[in-house]
Amino acid sequence: MLRELQAVAQGRLCGPEERRRCRTESGSFADWACEVCQEYLRPEFLSPWTWHLLFLYRLSRAGYPFRANDLSLETWLLLGVVRGAMENSQRGKNDHRQF
Fold it and tell me: Are 45 and 74 in contact (CB under 8 A)?
């Protein structure tokens, strides 16, 4: 799950633009290259649980009024992991831009 979150936080989800670029660069080997790609993560490879946690994270960031017992303890803990991954990545991007 952490690898998935890092890919999302760093903007490394494979989208239409990346697929076009890959098909152009890899030609007839594009399907194989896509399967072994280390640079981008295909959205369909994200687990449903990761998508759910990202949804909860976005609700939280938007100010949705979660109460203490709205989520299970496990979900609260994992939401903390999501928040850490997303905010650490954003902080890293901002630091990089300052130099």
Answer: no
